[in-house]
């Protein structure tokens, strides 16, 4: 595991890390998001900061096989007459 700052830089300013090696989450969608930040910052300098707060509670629901739900269920939807 490599320690990275908010710009995805390691302790060497010209080396960036993302995904499983930079932690704290080992999920594909987080790695892809970190990769975008690392790429932008490697090309353009300290430009965009990555925040782990963006992933909050949604990471707590990982199962195999993957299942997802978006929107309200019929019970939670307000009645529209």
N→C terminal distance: 55 Å
Low-confidence stretches: none
Computed over alpha carbons, the radius of gyration is 17 Å
Biggest sheet layout: none
Strand content: under 5%
Short summary:
The chain is mainly alpha-helical.
List keywords for this structure.
81 residues; mainly alpha
Could you describe the 3D structure shown?
With 81 residues, the chain is an all-alpha fold. 21% of the residues lie in helices and 0% in strands. The chain is built from 1 helix and no strands. It starts with 27 loop residues before the first helix and ends in a 37-residue tail after the last helix. The model has no long low-confidence stretch (mean pLDDT 77).
Q: What's the helix and strand layout?
A:
Blueprint: H1 28-44
């Amino acid at each position: 595991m490599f320690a990275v700052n908010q710009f995805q830089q390691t302790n060497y300013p010209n080396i960036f890390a993302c995904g499983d090696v930079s932690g704290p989450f080992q999920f594909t969608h987080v790695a892809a998001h970190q990769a975008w930040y690392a790429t932008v910052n490697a090309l353009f300098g300290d430009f965009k900061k990555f925040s782990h707060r963006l992933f909050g509670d949604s990471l707590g629901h990982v199962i195999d096989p993957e299942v997802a739900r978006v929107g309200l269920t019929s019970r939670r939807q307000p009645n529209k007459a």
